[in-house]
Amino acid sequence: MARTGTHPVLGGRLAGLTSLRLADNDSLDATDPRGRLVVVGNGMAGARFVEEVLGRGGGDQFRITVFGEELHGNYNRIMLSPVLAGEEHEDGIVLNSHDWYADNRVTLRAGIRVERIDTAAKQVLAADGSITPYDHLVLATGSRSFIPPMAGIRDADGGLLPGVLGFRTIDETRALLAAAAVHQRAVVLGGGLLGLEAARALQAHGMQVELVHAAPHLMNAQLDAEAGAILKRSVESLGITVHLDVLASEVAGPGRMRGVVLADGRRIDADLLVVAAGVRANTDVAVLSGLEVQRAVVVDDQLRTDDPDVYAIGECAQHRGEVYGLVAPAWEHARVLADVLTGTDPTAEYHGSRTATKLKVAGVDVAVMGISAPERDDDEFLVISEPRRGVHLSVVVRDDRLVGATLLGDTRKVAALAQAFDRGSPLPEERIRLLVDLSDGKADVGVAELPGDSQVCNCNGVSKQGICDAVAGGCGSVGAVMDRTRAGKGCGSCKGLVKQIVEWAADGDVAEDASAGWYVPGIPLAKPALMAAIREQDLRSVSAVFAALAPGGGEDAKSKMGLTSLLKLVWGVDFLPEKDGEFINDRVHGNIQRDGTFSVVPQIKGGVTTPAQLRRIADVAEKFEVPMVKITGGQRIDLLGVRKEDLPAMWNDLGMPSGYAYGKSFRTVKTCVGSDFCRFGLGDSTRLGVDLETRFQGIESPAKLKMAVVGCPRNCAEAYVKDVGVVAVGNGRWEVYVGGAAGATIRKGDLLATVDSPAAVIELTGRFLQHYRENANWLERTYDFVPRIGLERIRQVLLADSEGSCADLDARMQRSIDAYTDPWGQDGKQPATPGQFRTSLPLIALPQVPVR
Amino acid sequence: MSLTGVATSTRAAYTVGRVEDVPPGEGRAFVAGNVQVAVFRLRDGSLHATQAACPHAGGPLADGQTDLDVLVCPLHLYAYRWSDGGSSAGLRAVRTYPVRDVDGDLVVDV
User: Fold this and answer.
1) Domains in chain A, start-ordered, CATH in brackets?
2) Are B63 and A592 inside 8 Å of each other by CB?
3) Yes or no, beta carbons of A592 and B21 under 8 Å apart
4) Complex ipTM, two decimals?
5) Domains and CATH numbers, chain B
6) Residue B50 phi, psi (nearest 5)
7) Per DSSP, which regions of A468-622 are E strands?
8) Pick from A186, A463, A523, A550: most CB atoms within 10 A?
9) pLDDT digits (tens, 9 = 90+) for A32-55
């Protein structure tokens, strides 16, 4: 790309500006029935607004005309700093080329300045003498550099003295680049974001740069004094001289900029002065047109000015007293106004922005959101300051919500903080965790430092890079990434980490999964609302639920299993079963193995068996040539590698009930030998374990349930890490723990209560299980459920009967217990559907599971 | 490519069973010629046939769960579209076969 000698039009056509249409076109279009939408300003706000309108089909509603004062197409103003620093080519920052406007039938009047709007006649009067009528007019005139009143800064014509430049446009950026190529010394006026970036960029071109800032510390609009001081050290370490708390009073000539005189009399000799001392909204057009202007053009919640057909968006708009200087609010304006004008949502309103920014200032990472210092007496303020490392972190918390955060030099926590700031989500009790990762025994590596190839989801072999690629590929939510990569869809123990990485990779710009609160992905209802709808509409089968409650009545394969479970819970014996609503494990009452065979686990209550039972199992295993017989972790015997077609005959020969080692249901109760034989036993744990298993056998639940009873706190059957664990503590008393886990997640259960009889244990267990069944999300184990609800709250409901629900919980659990039938005894005799036990894989060689 | 072309051009129709052998919403495995296929009858009555073993890890697809858009393998819950056999997780596509109801017979072209 030869760019020498001329100043090409950025985003222009190679053949010239052929896409520019003349105003006369309007008269040719006299028969066009579309409304006339005119946008004044072709910057970040104006062009985005046009995109939003087109995205809503507005191209068919409106003839769109855009006036741009610059000759260029629309470019990314935020990227001017990298262009100035030589890190980015200017072609790379074009957002919408001239061709884009032509392709979308948008008339771009580039290089034409609008002078005034005749709001009475509804016409735009431009500097070229053209008159453009409008039905709706949008002002997106942005802002311009503020030129401080310094002596000698302007030449005789009122223009800037040669050698004095602003830093707002691509033309100014080109001029700065040209100056950097021939001059050695520059002064940058302004120690805000723009000034610092200009200083850094010019210094990178080898210029000697001095920065003059009127306030006592750098970036005073965003940072407090302490953080500003740390930033100053970082900037100075780059070789930039910083002068604070001093005004520049004069530009020294003659003829061109040759130096800057400060208010204290010092003089800095230089050839280039970059003015970056703040911006002012471009309101000239609005003022001349008689619109209400304060600091900027005053708009209401629909971005409307005091003229009903004139709107203002972006940096030239003042909404509820706020004028924003960031792109995110401008884009929110564009969305809301596009909704309103296209009629997509005529009631759309803008209610202000919570601004969070993350940027690199002069090579230093900075992230700022909300307020930077406490404002009220009871605001919490946490500061971590490490001047030597150039790190300064602070948060402001009000009423348990994050209302401000400033991160300088280390922005690793920005994603989590931005989420907490935007959504008002709950904060960690230990506030310091907002700013640093505290190690809890395991090495807690921030997701930023995690190498790309490190495996995040071990079940499905997904690396951090895989997750980042999915985000880059357009997955905008944690759920979408999980669907695409299957990360977190195995055992689920990595879900938290997956979420963190997604948030980090998306820079905090993560959509809340609408479906996150739904019980199953295919029905847009949370569990309580879904249960209520099922009862009210008398929906007794999975297909009835889809027909009544799914969008468009469409079924969803991945929702069927959860719905089957829920319907069994709601209806008990009155549930209308449909085999296709069940997972294969539930259809054939065995756990499918990697080679398509099944495992058969007979019930052995409390892990207590007999020689006769063992003999029978041994005979059956031999008869059916079972490839592996294994003692399970749940104190049972697993017959592995059983062909589907053999299942009914095998159950018949076993003559034992199912042990439910395959379902999202109550599975087993492990016990120790308790008081019968153990010399330490304090209670009859085996008896109680057998009784618990007898009572709750086959109860379906949101996720599997594992229990244990131990006769003393030595905990030989690991009751402390079970969904419900019972521990004899002597004198006839038993402790009941809930929410424990020793799988992919390890968690000691919480002590729910200490009770004084086995009957009380059984009653409390049933009540807890029913509460869990009715309130847990699908596949939510008790170790997530108990902390989510809170132990105190569970105690109040189950022990103090704070909701008056205990009797109902007990009754509904009893109903489920009464509905129990042994599936092996039932389906073994008569298949539930044709071919229920037909093989699905007789012919093809499968990955062989080695037979030991 | 040429092999596939030959196979396609010499497709043969096989009657593998009766429509009622496949309960609504479920799948069953059959042999068509010497090819093992999984045949599904969806809740809307439509019929679909795929290769019997999952291309990912050989799972028995006839044991999977279905809706009107996808088939979900029972082993690792990867979903394959009926429309083209493709997977949203980017796995190798599952092969699909034409299947139709001829007077109650299930006829599969392989």
Assistant:
1) 25-144+282-342 (3.50.50.60), 164-277 (3.50.50.60), 356-434 (3.30.390.30), 455-512 (1.10.10.1100), 527-582 (no CATH), 583-658+824-852 (no CATH), 666-818 (3.30.413.10)
2) yes
3) no
4) 0.91
5) 13-109 (2.102.10.10)
6) -135, 170
7) 591-592, 598-600
8) A186
9) 888 999 999 999 899 999 999 999
